[in-house]
Design brief:
alpha+beta
């Protein structure tokens, strides 16, 4: 971002604190708006901030170019895994997941919606994970924009500076509709079922999406995987005929309860329902996929352009196991490397979410790290090289007082049928920037570079 834009944002921050440092009435109003709109994690409002995050158009376009190409790399990886049992074994799908991945989703893009979790660091950025399952947060942007309508200084800033605000919830609906038509769907406005377990913390987002889609003429319900039946032609939840199964339930959790006899799987296999995202995305979603992306022996899968972006923007990643591998162009014993340089690495379970099970080497004692390595060997974990993360200053309110807080930030771009549109902005005082782990979120605004 150029110095002029940065200076304007700093001036806005100073003004916000000057005008609202002890403005309990405004803080209560912003909190109540979030509760009314459902911008919550469980019962906690997740935006204790007085402004959106401002992103320069130049940086946004740079990330867009990279992430859309890496989406294609993930599609190539998925195809290679489906055709090579050794690659599939390295990804480590379960037997059920492998059987489901074989089923053809019948639409063109691997993911109808997806998200790359990304750390910004100076002029660089690193993609840490690929959320290919069906990412959360798509409905948040619209709601956050409504929150900041009540902050007059923000509205004046936006009126004075050329900007663009993404609307990912609209892109999602368009992408679902396109996938439905590519599978042969003919209805002008297909019915949509948003499907996850009862009582999940993201339920309020489902309500945001349901209400918007209903307003656009796409009849939508929120339901759970136990509420379906299939007569060989039509998938139903009660009396509701389902054309699009918007899968928010996590695949491995679904398959812990069900198999090929579930009505969804039957209808999906028969081509009588469009499921987004499909079972096949599990290959790219597993964190072990980044081990394939960054391992030299699999370079033949990717184009020269993709390899250049992988080397630049995806941190070195390997599945944790005994044996030799390459690190910084040298052959090393993987476990000895991890023990010797724990402050440079992070351990993650290969298929979990919400920050569960993650060990940060630089925050572990030697004994804690040794224990984490042993746990990683007994299960399926990846090790990933530590990357830098930017800190930003942003006006934040808490306990009836506002102040400028310095927080870690990540920017997680959304893709819809492989095209980037907007992204999630998360902020946290912790090294792990995650809503589930107590982090916050704010709106995204792209400032034009004039």
């Amino acid at each position: 971002m150029n110095e002029s834009l940065e200076s304007k944002i700093n001036q806005l921050d100073v003004l916000l604190i000057k005008n609202h440092q002890f403005d309990a009435q405004l803080f209560d109003k912003l909190t109540n708006i979030q509760k009314e709109l459902g911008i919550l994690h469980d019962d906690r409002p997740i935006c204790p901030f007085l402004r959106p995050h401002f992103f320069s158009r130049a940086k946004y376009e740079e990330i867009k170019s990279a992430v859309e190409e890496l989406h294609l790399a993930c599609e190539s990886l998925t195809e290679a895994a489906l055709n090579d049992s050794t690659i599939l074994a390295e990804i480590n799908l379960t037997e059920k997941e492998e059987r489901m991945a074989i089923i053809d989703p019948r639409y063109k893009s691997l993911c109808v919606s997806s998200r790359f979790d990304t750390y910004l660091h100076g002029n660089d950025f690193k993609f840490l994970e690929y959320n290919a399952e069906t990412p959360a947060g798509v409905g948040d942007q619209l709601s956050f924009q409504k929150v900041f309508e009540d902050v007059s200084e923000v509205q004046e800033f936006l009126n004075e500076n050329a900007h663009w605000r993404p609307l990912p919830h609209i892109e999602l609906l368009q992408s679902l509709d396109l996938a439905y038509r590519q599978t042969g769907g003919k209805k002008e406005k297909p019915n949509i079922a948003i499907v996850d377990w009862e009582g999940v913390s993201t339920y309020s987002e489902f309500e945001i999406l349901r209400d918007h889609w209903n307003s656009e003429g796409y009849q939508t319900i929120i339901t759970n995987p136990f509420e379906f039946e299939y007569d060989g032609k039509v998938l139903r939840s009660g009396d509701f005929e389902v054309d699009i199964f918007y899968k928010r339930v996590i695949i491995h959790e679904f398959l812990e309860h069900f198999d090929e006899t579930h009505p969804l799987v039957k209808a999906y296999s028969d081509g009588n329902v469009c499921m987004a995202n499909n079972f096949r995305v599990k290959i790219a979603h597993k964190k072990t996929s980044f081990g394939i992306l960054t391992d030299e022996k699999y370079e033949y899968i990717f184009t020269a352009k993709q390899l250049e972006l992988i080397r630049k923007h995806i941190p070195w990643t390997r599945r944790v196991k005994e044996g030799k591998t390459k690190y910084q162009d040298k052959e090393v014993d993987l476990l000895k490397l991890l023990c010797k340089e724990r402050e440079n690495f992070i351990l993650k379970p290969h298929d979990d979410y919400g920050g569960h099970g993650i060990s940060l080497g630089w925050e572990c004692s030697e004994s804690e790290w040794d224990e984490a390595i042993q746990n990683a060997l007994q299960h399926c974990f990846i090790v990933q090289e530590k990357v830098g993360v930017d800190k930003i200053q942003i006006p934040t309110f808490s306990n009836h007082q506002a102040s400028i807080e310095t927080l870690n930030i990540d920017f997680d771009p959304y893709l819809f049928n492989g095209k980037m549109h907007g992204g999630m902005v998360r902020l946290s005082a912790k090294s792990l920037v995650n809503i589930t782990q107590g982090g916050g979120e704010t709106a995204l605004v792209i400032l034009e570079d004039f």
